[in-house]
Amino acid sequence: MLIGEVARRSGVSARMLRHYESLGLVRPTARTGSGYREYSAEDIRRVFHIESLRSLGLSLREVKRALEDPGFRPSELVDDLIRQTRERIAEETELLTRLRRIGAAEPAGWEDVLRSVALLQALRSKSAGKRQRAALSSAGEVPVPVEALVEAVLRETDPNVAGALRWALARSGDSGLPLLAEGLRSPLAEVRRRAVRSVTEIPGGAATALLREALAHHDTVVRGQAALALGSRGVTDAVPTLVDMVAGQTQDVDAADVLSALACRPAMAEPIATRLVDRLAQATVGVSARRRLTQALGDIPGAITSRALEELSRDEDRGVALTATYLLALRDER
Questions:
Q1: Which domain holds residue 285?
Q2: 3-state secondary structure of 174
Q3: Where does the UniProt annotation place the signal sequence (predicted)?
Q4: Does the predicted model carry a pTM greater than 0.70?
């Protein structure tokens, strides 16, 4: 079969067939009397083999090795191709994400596009200063898309940069909450905790609703951050978790302060005092926890607290008794 017929049947151009021949990939078995290349059935099969390997992404050099090296191991080549393909997909995905974010910013012209690209690149800079400046400048004429801010805040390790990113995210409203909710479900503890910290700084009912859901989270740190934020917003659902935090010495001082502030609200002092007293009465509560609970109780106004402190001033644990006595004295002075 002459080269023109091979080209028509295989879909490989005559020029490419000559290139294969120059590389030693396939050589026509014979020549006609006029000197034309004549391909045998075996030559044609080799052409199809070459094209099949090229379709997998192999270079012509790799194709030649695969066809001619008797020690060639296909599994190694396939593993390498898988790695290269994954890298290429990751690069293309990153490019697609960047383009979508630039489009979301609705650039009016090339200057806006260039500013968006610069901001997105700065958010991934190795320099903490550049990342912080990008976060602070996101409220400019070309804001950073909210999904880029969420992605940045969930991976940020520098506290100053993280603060700037949370500020920028809070300024964008509650549009980032669905992505932060995904962050709360992350298998990585640090990502979950960055997510809840970001939610606590976003005002509004949607953020409050997400924080209510976080009260049932399996991560105690997430629950605690949600409870502190909700208590500061006057949400009484946070009280049980706040009492647990006092007893468990998990940000116990902050939790006690929030309980005290909540108790200043109408009709809140009595249920908070009752829960603290009930927790003090539990046999499983250790000595140090009882002292912390007593201290927290002292900041709650009302008759329930006064009666409980009076009883605690005679507690068998000297530390609890002294704390209760001191707190009673302070209450008498007020």
A1: 234-334
A2: coil
A3: none
A4: no
